[in-house]
């Protein structure tokens, strides 16, 4: 599959297709078992990790297009997996939080996601995994000024 073309050596391209393959593989599981789309699971996972968030904060943390975040939040609310509550720090926005059913689903999915991660990255030893995480963190830190507000799915990426 990989060759020596310029594109095959272009790291942003390699990151993108690898990310899509990993996300797609995991998505098969949570779509078939739980009926969740990739954006819905990402929103649920981030809220599960950070607690109640505004849609703007979700957009920033996931780097998803704000329309995708809005749809994911609406779908989670429609399924009673998340609910809105007033944002006491900003009366113009609401916080999205997982409901009891959402927490239960999140707690059921996380061990499956972690087991899949372990299988997918079994070709690395522990030191390589730590180094890989550290390198990805450094790349992300270089792009720290980029957030989800700049993502526009109509342009396949950046506004």
Describe this structure as you would to a colleague.
The longest helix is centred in the first third of the chain and has 24 residues, at 11-34. The protein has 7 helices and 4 strands, in the order H-H-H-H-H-E-E-H-H-E-E. With 159 residues, it is mainly alpha-helical.
Outline of the structure:
The protein is mainly alpha-helical and 159 residues long. It is built from seven helices and four strands.
Question: Topology of this structure?
Answer:
Layout: H1 6-9, H2 11-34, H3 38-50, H4 55-62, H5 66-78, E1 82-86, E2 94-98, H6 100-120, H7 126-142, E3 151-152, E4 157-158
Antiparallel strand pairs: 1-2, 3-4
Helix pairs in contact: 2-6, 3-5, 4-5
How far is it from the N-terminal to the C-terminal residue, by CA? 31 Å
Number of strand segments: 4
Which outline best applies? globular
Rg, nearest Å: 17 Å
Helical residues, percent: 55-70%
Strand content: 5-15%
Following the backbone from N to C, one meets helices and strands in this order, namely HHHHHEEHHEE
Largest sheet: 2 strands, antiparallel
Structural class: mainly alpha
Number of helices: 7
Give the integer mean of the pLDDT values.
Answer: 88
What spatial order of strands do you see in the largest sheet? 1-2
Point out poorly predicted stretches.
154-159
């Amino acid at each position: 599959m990989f060759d020596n073309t310029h594109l095959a050596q272009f790291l942003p391209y390699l990151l993108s297709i690898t990310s899509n393959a990993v996300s797609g593989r995991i998505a098969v599981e949570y779509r078939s078992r739980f009926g969740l789309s990739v954006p819905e699971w990402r929103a649920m996972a981030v809220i599960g990790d950070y607690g109640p968030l505004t849609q703007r904060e979700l957009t920033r943390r996931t780097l998803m297009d704000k329309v995708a975040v809005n749809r994911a939040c609406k779908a989670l609310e429609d399924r009673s997996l998340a609910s809105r509550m007033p944002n006491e720090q900003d009366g113009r926005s609401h916080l999205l939080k997982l409901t009891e059913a959402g927490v239960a689903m999140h707690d059921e999915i996380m061990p499956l996601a972690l087991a899949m991660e372990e299988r997918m990255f079994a070709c690395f030893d522990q030191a390589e995994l730590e180094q890989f995480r550290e390198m990805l963190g450094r790349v992300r830190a270089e792009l720290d000024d980029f957030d989800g507000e700049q993502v526009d799915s109509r342009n396949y990426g950046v506004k």
